[in-house]
Amino acid sequence: xxxxxxxxxxxxxxxxxxxxxxxxxxxxxxxxxxxxxxxxxxxxxxxxxxxxxxxxxxxxxxxxxxxxxxxxxxxxxxxxxxxxxxxxxxxxxxxxxxxxxxxxxxxxxxxxxxxxxx
Length: 118
Known about the structure:
The protein is α+β, with helices and mostly antiparallel strands and 118 residues long. 32% of the residues lie in helices and 19% in strands. The chain has three helices and five strands, in the order E-E-H-H-E-E-E-H. It has helices spanning 24-32, 39-50, 101-117; strands at residues 7-10, 13-16, 56-60, 68-73, 78-80. The strands form two sheets. Strands 3-4-5 form a three-stranded antiparallel beta sheet, with no helix packed on it. Strands 1-2 form a two-stranded antiparallel sheet. Strand 4 and strand 5 (78-80) form a beta hairpin. The protein is globular, with a radius of gyration of 17 Å.
C-alpha cells in the first residue's frame, strides 16, 4: 500500500519508500542481496553441525513484527542472529554509499534501532 510523501505501509508499519536504483548495476547488486542463507550464515551453520550441534534455521519468534532467528536452539531457548556489516553499521566495515545518502543513512539507523529493541 502506498502512502503520501514517499512512505509505504509494510507489515502494518509506515516506512520510507526506497528510492529508485541509481543505475542498473546497483539494481542488480541490491536484488542479489540475500535475506537468508548468506555465506556467513551457511558457514556458521556448517561449523555448528560438524561440531555436533543440532538447531533450527529461520525459526519464527512470536512477536508483533514476525522476527525470524537465523539459528535457533529451542531447548536452550537461545537465538543467534548473523548480522551483516553493511545493514547493521559495523564500525570496522560500514561505508555509507555515495548516492541516496539520506535514504541509506535513515535505513541503517532504523536497522540499528530495531537491533536495540530486540
